[in-house]
Specification:
Helix content is 78%, strand content 6%. α3 runs antiparallel to α4 and α4 packs across α5.
Length: 171
């Protein structure tokens, strides 16, 4: 029994030494991913493209809203003057409800299209950034590279932001 306890004790000691040794070999760095990505020229051009796309979407919606508003105003004027029969008023109300529903659907579709376009424009930028992280990690034997915003405390940590900027060709 004593021999078994000694063997377990030695085994636990060996595992503890190995895990301490492995931990000591881990190199953890951090980067400020937001500032790096924002400084990339590809990011800046993607924002210009996205803004132009947003302007187009807003114009299309504004035109549809103007059509709705004009139809509403014209028919309200006709109704005030008593020029619409009850059947015509019912038809106008049905048309207005459909137009409003279509306008809401178009607004939602525009929002979805905008988000999709943003994702399409950002994916190559994220791919480039991740490739740079891989290169820096490999070149400097970092086990982990974390984002600065997700770290609660990083005193005396390794800031790899400048190295990633260099790989990306940024200043």
């Amino acid at each position: 029994m004593k021999t078994l306890i000694k063997k377990y004790g030695i085994l636990l000691f060996a595992i503890g030494c190995m895990s301490t040794s492995l931990y000591a070999q881990s190199k953890i760095a951090y980067v400020d991913s937001e500032s790096i990505i924002i400084s990339m020229p590809q990011y800046k051009s993607s924002r210009v493209i996205l803004e132009g796309y947003g302007v187009q979407l807003r114009k299309v919606l504004a035109d549809k809203k103007a059509t709705f508003d004009k139809y509403y105003a014209d028919n309200m004027e006709q109704a005030k003057l008593g020029r619409l029969t009850p059947a015509q008023q019912q038809e106008v109300e049905t048309n207005l409800a459909k137009m409003q529903s279509d306008l809401n659907k178009d607004a939602q579709k525009s929002d979805d299209d905008y988000v999709k376009k943003d994702q399409e424009l950002m994916q190559p930028i994220y791919d480039l950034f991740n490739k740079a992280l891989d290169q820096v990690s490999t070149a400097n034997a970092y086990t982990y590279i974390l984002d600065k915003k997700s770290i609660l405390h990083y005193k005396n940590g390794i800031n790899a932001s400048a190295k990633v900027r260099t790989v990306l060709g940024l200043k």
